[in-house]
Amino acid sequence: MGAKIRAGVLTVSDKGSRGEREDKSGPAIRELLEAAGVEIVRTEIVPDERDEIRAALVAWSDDGLDLVLTTGGTGFSPRDWTPEATKGVLDRETPGISEAIRAAGLSKTPTAMLSRAVSGIRKSTLIINLPGSERSVRESLAAVIGVLPHAVETLRGDSGDCARKN
């Protein structure tokens, strides 16, 4: 692979943004990505507000991050707006990533089908919504972490021919 993947981790949590709850999912993402050789260059905790989520996603993709992972705000709560904020900034969706995450979750618990998480591309940045719990983040990221280097290479135009000959 070419240059190191540069990533950001955006935690979406009203209580976390006010310092009323310790964020464990963001540090779990950081741990797993760093173990995979990804450089974490941005982290932030924002409240469940569409405009603040959207602003961070736009700024980070405009700054040229390769990958942005969000955690939180993907369920049925009236304050869960992460998927809508994400869809509002995407150029193209990547439904296979979100489907793989939900499928992996369904192998553990039927409540995984309640996830409204999305993923997609803004400019050359891959944005993936993950759930808000540490356990679910670890399970979800495990389902897709192996394809992230190829995804980033492809977005950079560095992957060459993706087809394989049998």
Characterise the protein shown here.
There is one protein chain. The chain contains seven helices and six strands. The chain has one domain: MoaB/Mog-like domain (Molybdenum Cofactor Biosythetic Enzyme, Chain A). The two termini are 22 Å apart. The longest helix has 13 residues. Strands 2-1-3-6-5-4 form a six-stranded mixed beta sheet, sandwiched between helices. With 166 residues, it is α/β, with parallel strands linked by helices. It is globular.
Strands ordered across the widest β-sheet? 2-1-3-6-5-4
Number of strands: 6
SSE-based structural type: alpha/beta
Instruction: Please tell me the CATH architecture by its name.
Output: 3-Layer(aba) Sandwich
Task: Fill in the keyword field for this structure.
166 residues, alpha/beta, Molybdenum Cofactor Biosythetic Enzyme, Chain A, six-stranded mixed β-sheet
